[in-house]
Amino acid sequence: MGCHPLFINPRFTYYLSTSEVQFIPTMQHNPFASISVLLTHYCFDLEEQTTEEVVKNWLGEYPAKWVLSAIVEALYQGRYKVTSVEKILFHWRLRGKPNSHFDREFADLVCRVLLRRARLKAQKMRARQMPLRAAA
Which of 30, 51, 82, 91 is the most interior residue, by most CB within 10 Å? Predict the structure, then answer.
């Protein structure tokens, strides 16, 4: 079974099994879903916007890797508001590069929701693919 990279932060690479990659909403496959899952799971204050509107706006202005890293950075700072993520992204744009302060362990903790989702989806898909056994 091969492993594939999942980029959470430009400084770190996380490796997943082939079955996990197949079902996880990764940055390569679906950054919109990855970002939406984190905003929803961590109950970010969307300030009268929908998750879809927020994510669409961010992805229209910033690289997807930056957006996901900015969400993790906001969580690291204890800020659960969309405006906090926007401020982080704005400052990173001024600098020309991300400047995150969280470490790999924190990113792992925050992003476990994506991994759990991938594993659950993989288990459901395997269960659907298993032939039904006749009752004895």
Answer: 82
